[in-house]
Specification:
By secondary structure, the protein is an alpha+beta fold. It has a domain of about 140 residues: CorA soluble domain-like (Beta Polymerase, domain 2, 2-Layer Sandwich). The chain is about 50% helix and about 10% strand. The chain has ten helices and seven strands. Strands 2-1-3-7-6-5-4 form a seven-stranded mixed β-sheet, sandwiched between helices. It starts with 7 loop residues before the first helix and ends in a 22-residue tail after the last helix.
């Protein structure tokens, strides 16, 4: 399923709303705070066993009771968190803890796992590959025979898992709900790799530009890359701890047969952590390369200008010493221009032509006019870097 793209302005508005949408200090535990930007919920039911499979969209949660009792494993996915009463009713139906329901609605949670008496509460963050990547909270309640998931909005990376369930591919329909949790977590974690590959391609392109033709615009691009890398970095670090807790700690709802698969997910999170740290180091190194190239080009420019100035220093000294106003009566070669009718305008025109020619030459060589070597402006961009 294609996830709709969002512009930078809408992303900033969503982040600002999330920061403000918190329970007031002193509120009772388990208080659900509505989200003004949340979408209307859509409930999808999937029930399966080794020999059969059923999938449908549910409009009334009262219909879920008989459906849940019929199937060995049920997966109920809710897209959208606008209806708080529906979330509360689902919590009562499955016996979910009020504190966990509060974390479902407040979508600024870090990836984590919490154990309750009859279910486990898991929070993960799914990344969206947009111009400015953002992460979306996915909340999971794992019981012995059910898995209840909440997403902020429609569109996810679980289509391949649903397809495996429909076509009975692999062993997913032979296993319990804990294996379904592994399959969803694996899809979430694998979703980070294409995003990081995109980061790698952007860094490689930017590196070629910095090495070839460094410009001031590249400083903002480098800073933007480092800022964008912070988003997956904030999600990957706690994600590792969450997966490790599921794979290593004793949980009543994770079987020993599923733990090796979760350890494989843990290895993938380690790879992602290595990638994000390497890319941040490359981005920081690109800024150092940019400064080095700017300094090298500036030194080349100063060397050329110094050579030109050095050539004209003795010439200017001799011209100033003798004044150049030699007597024209003594020789016809002595400053014949002094007798010209348009001598003075001609001299001004020559000086203007030389000045314009030098400006054109400097601009063509990218020494002025936005190039990397326009005076000291290239090194003045240090404030943009982290």
């Amino acid at each position: 399923m294609t996830i709709p793209k969002r512009d930078a302005t809408s992303l900033r508005k969503i982040r600002a709303i999330r920061q403000k949408r918190r329970a007031a200090p002193g509120s009772p535990p388990g208080t659900l705070v509505p989200d003004p930007s949340a979408v209307a919920p859509v409930i999808r039911f999937i029930g399966y066993g080794p020999d059969d499979f059923h999938e449908q969209e549910v409009s009334e949660i009262e219909n879920l009771g008989p459906m849940i009792a019929k199937w060995p494993v049920t997966w109920i996915n809710v897209d959208g968190l606008a209806d708080l009463s529906l979330i509360q009713r689902l919590g009562e139906m499955f016996g979910l803890h009020r504190l966990a329901l509060e974390d479902v609605v407040n979508v600024h949670q870090r990836p984590k796992v919490e154990e309750y008496e009859d279910h486990s509460f898991i929070v993960t963050r799914m990344i969206h590959s947009d111009q400015a990547p953002i992460t979306e909270q996915v909340s999971m309640f794992l019981g012995d025979r059910f898995l209840l998931t909440f997403q902020e909005q429609p569109g996810d990376c679980f289509d391949l898992v649903r397809d495996r369930l429909r076509k009975h591919r692999g062993q997913i329909r032979e296993r319990k709900a804990d294996y379904l949790v592994y399959a969803l977590l694996d899809a979430v974690i694998d979703g980070y790799f294409p995003v990081f590959e995109n980061f790698g391609e952007r860094l490689e392109t930017l590196e070629n530009l910095v090495m070839g033709q460094p410009s001031r615009d590249q400083v903002a691009q480098i800073h933007g890359m480092k800022r964008d890398l912070l988003i997956p970095r904030r999600a990957i670090w706690p994600q590792r701890e969450m997966v490790n807790a599921l794979a290593r700690d004793s949980s009543l709802h994770i079987s020993e047969q599923t733990r090796p698969y979760l350890r494989d997910c843990y290895d993938h999170t380690i790879q992602l952590m290595d990638m994000v740290e390497i890319y941040r180091e490359i981005a920081s190194g690109l800024f150092d390369i940019y400064l080095s190239n700017v300094s090298a080009k500036m030194n080349e420019i100063m060397k050329v200008l110094t050579i030109i100035a050095t050539i004209f220093i003795p010439l200017g000294f001799i011209a100033s010493l003798f004044g150049m106003n030699f007597d024209r009566d003594a020789s016809p070669w002595n400053m014949p221009e002094l007798g010209w009718y348009l001598g003075y305008p001609f001299a001004l025109a020559v000086m203007l032509a030389i000045a314009l020619g030098l400006l054109w030459f400097f601009h063509r060589r990218r020494w002025i006019g936005g190039g990397a070597g326009n005076g000291g402006e290239g090194t003045a961009q240090t404030d943009y870097a982290d």
